[in-house]
Amino acid sequence: xxxxxxxxxxxxxxxxxxxxxxxxxxxxxxxxxxxxxxxxxxxxxxxxxxxxxxxxxxxxxxxxxxxxxxxxxxxxxxxxxxxxxxxxxxxxxxxxxxxxxxxxxxxxxxxxxxxxxxxxxxxxxxxxxxxxxxxxxxxxxxxxxxxxxxxxxxxxxxxxxxxxxxxxxxxxxxxxxxxxxxxxxxxxxxxxxxxxxxxxxxxxxxxxxxxxxxxxxxxxxxxxxxxxxxxxxxxxxxxxxxxxxxxxxxxxxxxxxxxxxxxxxxxxxxxxxxxxxxxxxxxxxxxxxxxxxxxxxxxxxxxxxxxxxxxxxxxxxxxxxxxxxxxxxxxxxxxxxxxxxxxxxxxxxxxxxxxxxxxxxxxxxxxxxxxxxxxxxxxxxxxxxxxxxxxxxxxxxxxxxxxxxxxxxxxxxxxxxxxxxxxxxxxxxxxxxxxxxxxxxxxxxxxxxxxxxxxxxxxxxxxxxxxxxxxxxxxxxxxxxxxxxxxxxxxxxxxxxxxxx
Length: 501
Hints:
- Keywords: FAD, Flavoprotein, Monooxygenase, NADP, Oxidoreductase.
- GO terms for molecular function: flavin adenine dinucleotide binding; N,N-dimethylaniline monooxygenase activity; NADP binding.
- Helix content is 30%, strand content 25%.
- The strands form eight sheets. Strands 1, 2, 3, 4, 5, 6, 19, 20 and 23 form a nine-stranded mixed β-sheet that branches. A five-stranded parallel β-sheet has the order 8-17-9-10-13. Strands 14-15-16 form a three-stranded antiparallel β-sheet, with no helix packed on it.
- A hairpin with a 2-residue loop joins strand 19 (364-366) and strand 20 (369-370).
């Protein structure tokens, strides 16, 4: 035993990220693999991930909470489309209820991850913060590394260069870093962008602003949905909480998959349906044609949901407007558009989207060589070729993130049990024969296209294809024959010294 082995803590599993996915992964690990030691490493000083970081007005889920919530923890609040603070409370309650919070280590940012084939273990280099600005570097080893940090860059949002922005006399704000001191009461506000963040901000701010304008280059598909699920309310009145939650969850899963398939297979009918619903709310066909009828088909990009049509209602009340145009330049009093119109503004909010970042920025190294992620394929939506004992958590793009993330966590537990049963020190997925190549996230959205080349790829057939279908995945993911695609390393073939826990 070397001096390094004595001072370096060793764990069976390390989970990176204490957000919605990481807490769910910990629950599955401690219930399905109860003998495994584990820790959750969280770079920030609080759990919750997205739901703790993002504090802009009106932040909410864009999926219903019966499917975005955990299958093992019934959602009990009234609203199906929930606000950010409610979701954060739910995640926090889950961590506390199941003792997961005792495994979270805050201020622990993984800066490098090195796999040793000789020892069949990961060595993690971690920048540990004391909460007061000081950091120290520590190391930690583990047998299995599970990245639940999502695929966004939470330190930097996407900020395109706007001509003349330095001349603007007002204040520019990015929603990802919302300032607590921002007072927009009675102000003229322009929100640049038309995605989920923008359509959330507009109705949330409209009651306090003099006028709020959403400035978009091109239209986005936006659909009104009920904030409360009346059928779910009725089911919860009649049945015990766990049974009611299960039935509502199945109902919503089937509806979501059905609507997605309808949009993909009958795009013209889906276009007519969505524009018809929006026209019925706004009562203006020309307005809908100009600002709410995209050139792309529904679900070529993610559909924006607005609960109780709040976005459209703000427009009807005259408190908000939508402008479809391109920015020519910022001017002291606002934004001059290519049409020549000047949008007056005291505050400009750049809801221009997030930047993708593969797996929290962690680039794994195997036996000293950095892994080029873009050369790897994803197996079962979770493990990577070329990287042993390593998994990532990636949710659905057309449904609630948690549906896929929970399946991935259960798959990881199944892999761990498979390794124990056969006395394997390591496993890595290997394809049999050549694979076709597709991007991991197959969406036409700009935020995806800007960075997806840096991510691993998916193949053209199961189990290398990342299907956007929970029903199929729920049937096959946990029944796959692990011996056919996971290449093992027997424990007897590696040097794995005993470590002090």
